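YM 10:42: Tetraacyldisaccharide 4'-kinase sequence, as discussed on the call
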Amino acid sequence: MRAPGFWRRGFPSPLARALAPLGAVYGAAAGARLARPAPRAELPVIVVGGLTLGGDGKTPTALALAALLRELGEAPAFSTRGYGGAAGRPPFRVDPERHTAAEAGDEALLLARSAPTFAGVDRLAAARVAQAAGASVLILDDGLHSRRIDADLALVVVDAGHGAGNGLCPPAGPLRAPLLRQLAIVDAVVVIGAGAAGDAIAALARSSGKPVFRAAVRPDPEAARRLAGAPVLAFAGIARPEKFFATLEETGARLVGRRAFPDHHRFSRRDLFALDRQARTLGARLVTTEKDAARCPGVGSVLPIVIRFQQEEALRAALAGALTAAA
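YM 10:58: structure's back
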């Protein structure tokens, strides 16, 4: 799915206003779901949710949190809903050497290269399987809005350049639930990048007593060094491909072409042939994201990214506090 352009505007367009009644119905249902009680797991649970439908930075944030938890002496594991074949199955441990993106989901494959990862809709069952496998804490990549499991620490991630979009719920806008309802149920807000839209949400969160952790996306230094000055044809099938293109430009690579596909796009042979032919014509190197590479392994080069927190010590303290309270 590719998000409509009118979702991204800072104010509702005429089309968004026409769809607003449907968005209000969606928002009411989503808000009611946020208010319902959720079962608790036997191990601490940290939930990472996105403010909007895709592209906020949940997965890299979850990966960064896992690194901080390991520094605290914990053994983190991930739980993700998965896509395709994973959605209807009991939770299973993802093996990046055996499973494909069609079986487990691209995000699950990416997470599994960092820590044990369990894909499946039943998050409580995933928590039991993860604990039996030796995990001391479970990180949910997404799962804030489904309320399938209660959180000991709930974080919502905001893309500062996008914020709340036009402030409406689908189909009128991108919000997963009304903004204030989302802020009410989380323990803290993570704002990635810079932008007035993100600043506004940070101010709103602070006014309601919620901590705000600022963060930035950084390209992997070694990959960036290899790409500096090189002609590149960039392609991405993620929610906000323009973010990837901008990060790629930060490396000093020369973007001679860029191709954007819908989020979670399944690349066909025709797609890959056309990309290869275009790259050869341009005399450029194909470069994509880690998530896209999970769906087309071996095609082109990959630019990994990492999340760097500005208030890392404060976030580490919040994680430690949540673990202590859950004990």
